[in-house]
Amino acid sequence: MQGLHLTADLYNCACDSKLLIDATQLADLCRSRTVDAGLTLVAEKWHTFPDYEGQPGGVTGMLLLAESHLAIHTWPERAGVTLDVYVCNFMDDNSAKAERLMRELLGSFQAKNEQIERLQRGDETGPGAQGELLLESLDATSVYGFRFNRRILERQTPYQRLELLESPELGRSLRLDGHFMTSEADEFFYHEALVHPAAIAHPDPKRALIVGGGDGGAAEELLKHPSIEALTLVELDEQVVEVARSHLQAINKGALDDPRVTMRIQDGAEFLAAAEPGFDLILLDLTDPETPAGPLYTEDFFRQCQRVLAPGGALVLHLGSPFHERDQVRGMAQTLRAVFSQVHGYGVHIPLYGAYWALAVVSDQLNPLSLDPAQVQARIDARGIGDLQYYNAEVHGGLFALPNYYRALLEPA
User: Fold this and answer.
1) Highest taxon of the source (predicted)?
2) Quick one: 258 and 373 in the same domain?
3) Sign of CA pseudo-dihedral 150, 152, 157, 162
4) How far apart are CA 313 and CA 310, in angstroms?
């Protein structure tokens, strides 16, 4: 009995209206998506309801699976669909197959609004009683994960799948396209490490740019530096910003609405191509290279960043896991070296990312290692920076003390 039960209520579907009234077309879609997900079709039944008051009737259908079932009902008068996918995990864990089937069907109906529920079934005292287990891959053979006892929301934005979850350990947590992004409990590991090494190394940062960072965590850290007069935040997905404003105030502390912040909902490459020089700091707070942010990890984009940096300015970005993604980290370092004269790699373990993570401060002039701990502390004190949970004067230099395997990835080819 133990298994995963997924349900979805879809409203205002923007798909071809025939998909909601043509049983043959709907059945073909469900069969193909089921087989593509790796599930086993054993029988099926479809029924089209008669027209009512001049409106076409909807369709009800069910696929019986060796693993359990898929049920679907359409409501053409409301452009609505209800979906029900249940898989048994007694012999094998079919959860990923069920997730894929649901994801593919959701993409096909293009609902403007949706409600999605997940229920772990059939094991009264098993791990499912402690919350929904979500896993993420670090590479082809390594995975990690967390349990969440509440789903606050889930939606398909124009760019990615957005989930907001909650657990006693992590608090509210943002997930995009199946990748953990930030959580209330551990965000300081990433955001403080991303922002403060370069910001403290800069003697007087006034203008800054964040590309990505729609959760507002990086902006909140950067605004702790009182010299910041203007911060531009360029985020592709407006719905990330909306969710952050409504649900992630513990992370951004209202920074997204600070008067010093200018919000631009725009593609980062498009913004940089038209931007005027003068930024003291640029932070690339992006999803990984295999996501829609991929074009922002190229030499052309890095050269655009270099063009708009003020003299003495620096670019900061994350490179990935130096253990699990060695080729990616090595390749990124070489690309950055082709553009900037200085590439200073550093690293921090980030619990939500399941690994030790590589970042870099790159510049033609700014060297974050030029400050000793006393100088770092003097700048922290002079700027009145408090509420730091990770970063301090000793940690500043320690972040750049690299293990040999990671250091080797940064060496020139």
Assistant:
1) Bacteria
2) yes
3) negative
4) 5
Return the CATH number at 343.
3.40.50.150
Listed in sequence order, the residues at least 6 apart from 108 whose beta carbon sits closer than 8 Å to its beta carbon are 15, 19, 29, 33
Q: DSSP secondary structure string, 303-324? A: HHHHHHEEEEEEEEEEEE-TTT
What's the domain range around 36?
A: 3-130
Residue stretches of the annotated binding site: 160, 191, 215, 235, 267-268, 295
- Check residue 352 and report its DSSP letter: G
Answer yes or no: do 207 and 121 share one domain: no
Number of helices and strands in the chain (H, E): 12, 19
Alpha carbon 272 to its chain's center: 22
pLDDT tens digit string along 168-211? 999 999 999 889 999 999 999 999 999 999 999 999 999 999 99
Binding residues for S-methyl-5'-thioadenosine: 160, 235, 267-268, 295
Residue 210 and residue 258: Cα distance in Å, rounded?
A: 14
| Residue 95 domain-assigned (yes or no) | yes
Output the six-digit token pair for 234: 């360029």
pLDDT in tens, 51-79: 988 889 999 999 999 999 999 999 999 99
Does the structure show a pLDDT above 80 at 126?
no
Q: Same structural domain for residues 194 and 308?
A: yes
- Over the chain, what is the mean pLDDT? 94
Give strand pairing partners of 62.
45, 71
Whether residue 237 lies in the annotated active site = no
192 and 115 share a domain?
no
Rg (CA), the chain: 24
Tens digit of each residue's pLDDT (9 = 90 or more) over 353-410: 999 999 999 999 999 999 999 999 999 999 999 999 999 999 999 999 999 999 999 9
Q: One of 9, 92, 285, 327 is an active-site residue; which one?
A: 285
